[in-house]
Amino acid sequence: MHPRLVRLRKQMKANGIDRFLVVDPKNLRYITGFTGSWGALLVDSADAILITDFRYAEQVEEETSGFDIRITKELPFLEAAKVRNGFKGRFGFEAKSVSCFDFGKLKEALPGTDLVPCYNLVQELRVVKDSFEIGKIRHACEIGDEVFSEILKQVKPGACEADLAAEIDYQFRKRGSSGPAFDTIVASGPRSSMPHARAGSRELEKGDMVTFDMGAVFEGYCSDMTRTVVVGKADDSQRNIYHLVLDAQQKAVDLIKSGVKCSDLDKAARGKIEQAGYGENFGHRLGHGVGLDVHEEPSLSSQNDSPVETNTVFTVEPGVYLAKRWGVRIEDTVVVRKEGCEILTGSPKDLLEL
């Protein structure tokens, strides 16, 4: 019996769900191992039916075992609705992954059925990682570290943001990654004050702060790391803000251990930045979970009082952004241990003046 399937059934029982439909591809992969982009899993107390179409008929047999596999010409979720028509229990579905249109079709196919929207039912199972998952994330982080070391050689006046981002993505693939976990960010000069700036045509200039936000995917699992460097010599203001952000990150990292609240971690880093008078310049949460998705639970925000658990993986990424001037963000991916944490991203955090 698949241990993740056992845990899902327990989660269903706790939520009063008699039958559950999984359609999110990452959740499907987590429960079954199937990596195709088109499929559905129907789970109840007796059966686990994995549905896909002709394109994945061989792949699903190779990647999974112990599931009742069905190949359909229908939409997978509609094929799932045909199973034992007349079912009258509570039928749960992934509310974040089923569109209004699909919900309407599902309702037509299951008249009289109590359709129950479920939020994060599988995602909650994914929060705590096993050793297999941590190993994949660790390797993705190692790829990121290698690529960052390589890209630093190209940071100089005249280098183009978009060219640097393209080189990062290429180097990821050369090292065994399936590609970037998100659109690689290279933001220089005044563009570095935008937390999620897209790499553009701007060329680096002497005195620029340059933010690299990059993550690789290795066998489905993501890494996420941000470093900020200077082209040439940093001025006093740049140096002071950089070390403020670094100190704020360390303040949070020092608190991490099993049982600490997400909100307390956010508060530790945010408080340091607020004390220095830059609270308004740190407008995002401290971090987020990392796994099959680069952004998943838990959310390290001031609104989340949930405690972190051992073997949870998340980012710690404070920043200070001075509009139209420049910004600094420093981000690491960490795994929680019973006492403390392990930082999986190993690139240097000294202020690099290139």
Automatic annotation (TrEMBL):
Protein keywords: Aminopeptidase, Hydrolase, Metal-binding, Protease
GO molecular function: aminopeptidase activity; metal ion binding
Pfam families cross-referenced by the UniProt entry: Creatinase_N, Peptidase_M24
Domain of life where this protein originates: Bacteria
Keyword Protease: yes
Record family assignment: Belongs to the peptidase M24B family.
UniProt-recorded name of the protein: Aminopeptidase P family protein
